[in-house]
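U., I forgot to send this yesterday:
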Amino acid sequence: MFDDVTQFIQNIYKTTGFIPLHEPQFIGNEKKYLNECIDSTFVSPVGKFVDEFEKKIADYVGAKFAVATTNGTSALHIALLLANVKENNEVITQPLTFVATCNAISYCGATPIFIDVDKDTMGLSPSALHEFLEKNTYIKNQQCINNKTGKVIKACVPMHTFGHPCRIDKIKDICDEYCIRLIEDAAESLGSLYKNKHTGTFGEMGVLSFNGNKIITAGGGGCIVTNDEILAKRVKHLTTTAKVRHKWEYSHDMIGYNYRMPNLNAALLVAQLESLESFLLKKRELATIYENFFNNTTYSFVKEPIAGQSNYWLNSVILRNKEQRDLFLNETNSKGIATRPIWTLMNKLPMFESNQCGDLTNSDWLEQRVVNIPSGIKGLYINEGAHV
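Result:
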């Protein structure tokens, strides 16, 4: 039924064997920097590669400061804590996201509220956000109060789904209007721009992830970027077990977290950053190939939104309905082509099924139709015989 698609993907990758959804590329100085790190014996969170990576990633996205963490989830957790999210607070996010977004909110003792996404971005919808806040909240003492629960809505965490920027500027304006602190989940969108500005730099803090399947990776790792020097210093202190600086004493002035990125991971990421622009270029080339192919089919390829420049981390197609989606998933995977459905909506998971929601029409529609297709650039062929 989907022979045209499977044969096309196999032709792109020049194999009838297994084709992964996404796999990392280590084509530069990764081994060199790792050996240098090992030889230095500084393999834990203290070392020159951590400092170098933080400076280079901040420069790349146009932020003043960056603090590297163990992973994206720990970065989100700390960002929420420093946004003063506490037990019994509420945090607005989207149901169409990876579970880490909501887990981090829950670690703070707060409760996620789920607001719909836009179909074209698959990210938080500013119109749905404004409608919910207008109908369900009021402002008191510079705090946004939920009419239904009486609780403070402290923060908003939009996510740039699969690397496609959401309408983050409008979301920021709404958050400012309603006294809500904005934290961007840019875990999937390193290299993506909205109105020529990097995702992750619109909010008070932005969170990046360098998990093994991301566009650059150290097998793990995360990062918080911000333009606020005080926040950056607090992030570094809190993620380093809140240790008070001293030549030899071990003293801590608050409950802290062992969330700092090891020097080994940072060494990998310094090398990966050197290849990032070439990765982005090749991923855009792959997206163009997919777009041209799917334009001649009955399936819709998910393109970058207007005013956005996507990193095309994971390419996606939209099927007619859930039945066709399931047939597509079964046939492609049975032929060794790794395809995946979009995540189960967060409000359908047992731990969040009683949470407050807005109208989730778009999220439901996308959940039933969206499939990720192979998006790696390792072993990719753009033209016959031309290796990328």
